Amino acid sequence: MEDQTRFEGHLLMEMARLSVEDGLVMQLHAGALRDHNDFLYRRFGPDRGGDIPVATEFTRNLRPLLNAHGNDPRFQLIVFTLDESTYSRELAPLAGHYPALLLGAPWWFHDSIEGMMRFRQQTTETAGIENTAGFTDDTRAFCSIPARHDLARRVDANYLAGLVARHVIDMSDAREMATAMAYGLAKRAYRLS
């Protein structure tokens, strides 16, 4: 197990170094125990929805990588997780501190109305909206993509409307933030501009 941990750590550091060199955006998808349901796995094969969240530690585990590359403007790391407990405790403060780190959108069964609202509530106060990567989607269920993006836009609009109603931001700020959340953040995160 120690050899595996050291190898994985070395591999992440090497991927980050190469990402700095080639300018590609690095992503981490952590916090999932894959293929938990043996029956589904045997019947339908890998990656058929039997993935369950597991506790994930980012603060200590990402420290060497972020100390090496987290302040380098050539490096971009987007972190996705199924472990919601890390949003406000670890990921939002890390994203608020290291310029290279962005928070990926809630994914899988957290890309629901309540899951998206929890993400906004647990990350925005510390990380801000600018330190998120917008709503991106890697689903293989292609027919669901328009509905998922529509839901993300509606949840974000609802979140912003709540800020306007509480007089935290005004309508012009809300419009600007909505445009960023629906389009600009993802474009910037993946260096498409």
- Using only C-alpha atoms, the radius of gyration works out to 17 Å
Number of domains: 1
Strand content: 5-15%
Give the biggest sheet.
3 strands, parallel
By CATH's scheme, which homologous superfamily applies? Metal-dependent hydrolases
Taking the alpha carbons of the first and last residues, their distance comes to 42 Å
**Structural class from helices and strands?**
mainly alpha
Regions with pLDDT < 50 over 5+ consecutive residues? none
Q: Give the CA-based shape.
A: globular
Question: Could you give a quick summary of the protein structure above?
Answer:
With 193 residues, this protein is mainly alpha-helical.
Can you tell me about this structure?
The chain is mainly alpha-helical and 193 residues long. The chain has one domain (2-189): Metal-dependent hydrolases (TIM Barrel). It is built from 7 helices and 5 strands, in the order αββαβαβαβααα. It has helices spanning 2-22, 38-44, 63-69, 86-97, 113-127, 145-165, 171-189, and strands at residues 26-30, 32-33, 52-53, 77-81, 101-103. The strands form 2 sheets. Strands 1-4-5 form a 3-stranded parallel β-sheet. The model has no long low-confidence stretch (mean pLDDT 93).
Main traits of this protein?
globular; mainly alpha; 193 residues; two-stranded antiparallel ribbon; TIM Barrel
Topology, element by element:
Elements: H1 2-22, E1 26-30, E2 32-33, H2 38-44, E3 52-53, H3 63-69, E4 77-81, H4 86-97, E5 101-103, H5 113-127, H6 145-165, H7 171-189
Helix pairs in contact: 1-3, 4-5, 5-6, 6-7
